[in-house]
Write a structure and sequence with these properties.
151 residues
Length: 151
């Protein structure tokens, strides 16, 4: 995937740093504030200019995909091109009872861009099942959560 900038929380900065230190790939970083500021750098967007750039949206977790959709809309409005989404944890939740596919599948379908996760809830369950560090209670909690909300 070819992109020139990441948009996301501090995780986006970590991605930029790792790309540069491990692969010599230099991409910019920006993030959007929850609320616009009228002092200092001001505005809602902080960091590298995004207009006419290919943007990878980076987020820590996806639940319903609302934040990603808002970021996508904001990027399109300023003339940037969202080219993909990278999520640290996919909770593998149903988007809704009316649309029972996962939130990642719904975002990819609706925004027509690839969405990938580093780890998914089913992978986390497998890890918890094999790990001697965590007790059965945590695995039970995650399993119950997934049976109630998961795809």
């Amino acid at each position: 995937m070819d992109f020139s900038l990441t948009l996301g929380i501090s995780l986006g900065a970590v991605v930029c740093s790792a790309l540069y230190s491990d692969f010599g790939i230099d991409v910019g970083f920006a993030y959007d504030r929850k609320e616009a500021k009228d002092h200092g750098e001001g505005g809602k967007l902080v960091g590298a200019a995004m207009e006419n750039k290919r943007i990878l949206i980076v987020d820590d977790v996806i639940t319903a995909g609302t934040a990603i959709r808002e970021s996508h809309s904001m990027l399109v409005k300023i003339g940037a091109k969202p080219v993909g989404v990278s999520i640290a944890l996919d909770r593998a939740e149903k988007r809704s009872l009316d649309d029972p596919i996962s939130s990642i599948q719904a975002v990819a379908r609706d925004l027509k861009i690839p969405v990938v996760s580093i780890v998914s809830l089913p992978q986390l369950q497998g890890f918890l099942r094999e790990s001697p560090v965590y007790g059965d209670n945590l695995l039970d909690d995650v399993t119950n959560y997934r049976s109630q909300y998961g795809v």
